[in-house]
Each structure stands twice: as structure tokens, then as C-alpha cells.
Specification:
The protein has helices at about 30-45, 80-95, 125-130, 155-165, 220-240, 260-265, and strands at about 10-15, 25, 45-50, 55-65, 130-140, 145-155, 175, 195-200, 205-215, 240-255, 275-280, 290-295. It has a six-stranded mixed sheet with strand order 3-4-10-9-8-7. Strands 1-2 form a two-stranded antiparallel sheet. Helix 2 (about 80-95) crosses helix 5 (about 220-240). It has six helices and twelve strands. It is globular. It starts with 11 loop residues before the first strand and ends in a 14-residue tail after the last strand. It has one domain (about 20-35, about 50-295): Thymidylate synthase/dCMP hydroxymethylase domain (Thymidylate Synthase, Chain A). The protein has about 300 residues and is of the alpha+beta class. About 35% of the residues are buried.
């Protein structure tokens, strides 16, 4: 039996349709869902203290869906630095954990957490490409096998996910996790976007991300773009159409010193979504210059201070 497309909870303008034949949202772009989350937190969120001491307005358990067939979900009510999004994603996909590995010269986004040598510990890139696994090592002693020792190996979760999508697309186990409990004490910042899952249906590739902690002003627009880009890259590699990115949030919060900027952002009317073109190259051969963002119209940049 064919699977049904995920329903989306969007307010629509009756009779208006996108080029793909889907209903047009109130603001005429899917990013309205992100703005709705901001408004809901301002309206219904609760005051909550946090690790940084800044203070937040917070709600727990939120979700939004972005359909990549209607455009690339890059926030337009403020400028989002797409180049930084792309640089960081490619850095993760290389398995990198040090900002001096072709990151710091392009964007400072991880500088605040890195040590003096630029190291961040076993964060996203390490877990995605080199998740540690221990297997029992057999040794011979006095003619008998002894199995009390273990050898360390690594699991390349990204390669594993790509292979599963290609060979067993109906699998419900196509998951990549960065939340390695044993390694968290050695991470400079434990993963905020903890794990994601792929879903293949009718030639379409969807993805769902669970994000335990969501900085709605600074982090979330970046995270939406990053995982949408990863979804598009994966779909291209696997010969599928990039579909719906579902973003599930745990602690969704607005820092108190971001509230004024958020209120300004909510006054702005969203613009049409851009498109991203990716060169026809194998997944792991893709470089920065192989990506092109086109048609990105946006309102002015809003400076939000980073809570460290």
C-alpha cells in the first residue's frame, strides 16, 4: 500500500496554490511555521532559568514542518549567513572536531567553546563519522580462546545511512545520532540537535530531527537550513526527491536579551523562498564551491548576543 504524505498544520489562503499544487500559507511561504513558533513562545512561554544565567521564555515540545519542494527553508525575516551554515555542515561531514580544520577562517560560530588548541572534543562530526564501538577480541592462551579483551572500532553513521537508504529504503532504522552518553563529559558542548531519522516513500526522502535545546533566535534558523541542506544532499545522492523536514524541539526558548529582536522580526513580512543548487557529484566529493544559493531575498540582519 502506498504511504500517505505527512499532513501539515498550516493556515491557508483559500484558493491560492504554490507551483507544486500545494496550498499557499498565510505569508505565502512555509517559513511562517517558524514565525508561529516564535509568537507562541512569546504568548504562552514560561520564564525559566538556564545554564548561561541569561534567563529564557520557554516551551517544551514543539514541532514544525518544511517542504523542500516549495523552496529552500532559509529564514527571510532576517539575514541568515548561508555560507556559515554550509561551512559548518561540510566540517561535520568530514568528521572534524577542531575549528582549525578549515572552519575558523570562515566563521567564528564554534570559537566560544573551543579550547586553546581549537579542539571541541567528540562532538557532531566525530559521532556522525566515527561513533566508537567495542568488539570482543579473541586471544589464545594455553591453547584456549580468551575473550576478556575488547578492541575499539568506529561506525560511520553517515555512510551507513546512505547505504541503507539505497539498499533498504523501507527500513525504520535509518537514524544518525550525536547523543553518545559515554562521550558527553568530553564534549565542550553536548549536542543540541541530538539525532535525526530518514524516511523514504514514493520516491521522496523526508527527515525528522530531534533537537533537545533550541535557541529560537540564533540557533534554530541555522539548524533548519543545515538539516534541510543535508536532506537535499542525501536525496540527490540516493536519487530521490527532497521532501519534508520535520523539526521537533524539546526545550524551545527565547533568551530574555533576544525578545526585542524577535518582536522586530515578527513585524516583518516574509519573502519568497530561495533555491539551492548542488553540483552533480558523489556525496563525499562535494565541496563548498559545489553549492549555489539563488534568489535569497531577506530583511536586514538582526544582531542577537550569543549565550555561552
Amino acid at each position: 500500500m502506498a504511504c500517505r504524505e505527512t499532513a501539515r498544520s498550516l493556515s491557508v489562503v483559500e484558493g491560492r496554490r504554490t507551483p507544486t499544487g500545494r496550498p499557499l500559507s498565510f505569508y505565502l511561504v512555509p517559513m511562517r511555521q517558524y514565525l508561529q513558533l516564535l509568537q507562541e513562545i512569546l504568548d504562552n512561554g514560561e520564564r525559566k532559568e538556564d545554564r548561561t544565567g541569561t534567563g529564557t521564555i520557554s516551551l517544551f515540545g514543539m514541532q514544525a514542518k518544511y517542504d523542500l519542494r516549495e523552496g529552500f527553508p532559509l529564514v527571510t525575516t532576517k539575514k541568515v549567513l548561508f555560507d556559515a551554515v554550509l561551512r559548518e555542515l561540510l566540517w561535520f561531514l568530514r568528521g572534524s572536531t577542531n575549528i582549525n580544520d578549515d572552519l575558523v577562517q570562515h566563521t567564528p560560530i564554534w570559537n566560544a567553546w573551543a579550547d586553546a588548541n581549537g579542539e571541541l572534543g567528540p562532538i557532531y562530526g566525530y559521532q556522525w563519522r566515527k561513533w566508537p564501538r567495542y568488539i570482543r577480541a579473541l586471544r589464545l592462551r594455553s591453547g584456549h580462546e580468551e575473550s576478556g579483551l575488547f578492541e575499539r572500532e568506529h561506525v560511520d553513521q553517515i555512510t551507513q545511512a546512505l547505504n541503507t537508504i539505497k539498499k533498504n529504503p523501507d527500513s525504520r532504522r535509518i537514524i544518525v545520532s550525536a547523543w553518545n552518553v559515554g562521550d558527553i563529559p568530553d564534549m565542550k558542548l553536548p549536542p543540541c540537535h541530538a539525532f535525526f531519522q530518514y524516511y523514504v516513500c514514493n520516491g521522496r526522502l523526508d527527515m525528522q530531527l530531534y533537537q533537545r535545546s533550541a535557541d529560537m533566535a540564533l540557533g534554530v534558523p541555522f539548524n533548519i537550513a543545515s538539516y534541510a541542506l543535508l536532506l537535499q544532499m542525501t536525496a540527490q545522492e540516493c536519487g530521490l526527491i527532497p521532501g519534508i523536514f520535520t523539526h521537533t524541539l524539546g526545550d524551545a526558548h527565547i533568551y530574555l536579551n533576544h525578545v526585542d529582536g524577535i518582536r522586530e522580526q515578527l513585524k516583518r513580512e516574509p519573502k519568497d523562498l530561495p533555491q539551492v543548487r548542488i553540483a552533480a557529484k558523489p556525496f563525499f566529493d562535494l565541496k563548498f564551491e559545489d553549492f549555489e544559493l539563488t534568489g535569497y531575498q531577506h530583511h536586514p540582519f538582526i544582531k542577537f548576543p550569543v549565550a555561552v
